[in-house]
Design brief:
The protein is mainly alpha-helical. It is globular and about 50 Å long. It is built from 15 helices and 2 strands.
């Protein structure tokens, strides 16, 4: 019998403790604290995408659009109706969850494969971008909306912002952990292995895929809505395909799909890679493309599986 490296949910607790010490290691540098905060945001997004794509094979190429829809809904309602963000954030999260569930339901009812789902959701990303530009009276077009001073002072301070996003990440990981230990977890594991066999065995594939899409999209929306206030501005470029979808996909492939720690390790590694390629400017998109090709061709299993094999331990 193999010995577990970390029993049950202990890895989540230890991860939370380690990440809570990061601000102390930055030496009070606002720059490095911001990098660490951005890494937490991408970790939360990657955890959600792992549930969506890793376990249920739903290639949503609209992660940026889903996070952006929650962000814009939250900010626009806050500005237009003078509501508190604590009211508008749940509305934004519900919007993202509803969109994700709708895409999943339609794709299942129409029997669309992974590639077609990717194409449809990519089209939605383009629609979202043009919709934001078209509704200039609400969104201010490409210029975007300033989110400072809209009643969320907690996200205007570096240290409280870090711990708030750490709480979001912990919420995402705990949700993922509980789902994987529940009846839903058994169902998605079965359909990720063989969807047809799972359906023939009596598993309601459509229900579980739609539910997974709604939960994952809600997590994406929550982190996206908070990110809008933290960033100080919400604009189409902030939630673009290149700025969100590609990094999240790379982080998941790099860390390892269908693992608990894979999204964390992958997002952390990507944050370091992004810092290295930052001096290349617009050429960083080329670097991302090369990295994706390398990952797809020679590093499909990810860091977690590699560590399992090299260290001989059972990482979650």
């Amino acid at each position: 019998m193999k010995k577990r490296f970390l029993p049950s949910y202990t890895d989540i607790v230890l991860l939370g403790l380690v990440l809570s010490l990061i601000p102390a290691l930055t030496g009070g540098s606002p720059y490095y604290l911001r990098l660490a905060t951005l890494a937490l945001i991408y970790m939360a997004w990657t955890v959600a995408f792992n549930l969506l794509f890793g376990h249920t094979k739903q290639l949503f190429l609209c992660v940026g659009a889903l996070t952006g829809s929650a962000a814009y809904m939250t900010v626009v309602l806050t500005k237009q109706w003078q509501l508190t963000p604590w009211v508008t954030v749940p509305i934004g999260v519900a919007t993202a969850a509803a969109l994700g569930a709708t895409f999943s339901y339609v794709s299942q009812r129409r029997g669309l494969g992974v590639i077609f789902v990717g194409i449809i959701t990519l089209a939605f990303s383009l629609i979202f971008h043009n919709l934001v530009l078209g509704l200039r009276q609400f969104t201010n077009g490409e210029t975007g909306l300033v989110t400072r001073g809209l009643g969320f002072p907690l996200l205007e301070q570096p240290l409280p912002s870090y711990y708030l996003f750490l709480a979001v990440l912990m919420l995402a990981l705990i949700t993922y952990y509980l789902l994987m230990r529940s009846r839903m977890g058994m169902a998605v594991r079965a359909l990720s292995d063989d969807e047809l066999s799972a359906e023939l065995s009596g598993i309601d594939v459509t229900w579980y895929k739609v539910l997974a899409a709604a939960i994952a999209s809600a997590i994406l929306g929550l982190a996206g809505a908070f990110y809008a206030f933290y960033n100080g501005i919400v604009s189409p470029s902030v939630f673009s395909f290149v700025g969100v979808d590609i990094p999240v996909l790379i982080a998941l492939l790099l860390g390892g799909m269908r693992t608990r720690l894979g999204p964390i390790l992958g997002a952390a590694a990507f944050a370091l890679i992004e810092e290295v390629v930052r001096p290349f400017g617009q050429l960083n998109v080329l670097v991302y493309g090369v990295l994706m090709i390398v990952l797809f061709v020679s590093f499909r299993e990810g860091m977690v599986v590699m560590l399992r094999k090299r260290l001989g331990v059972s990482l979650p």
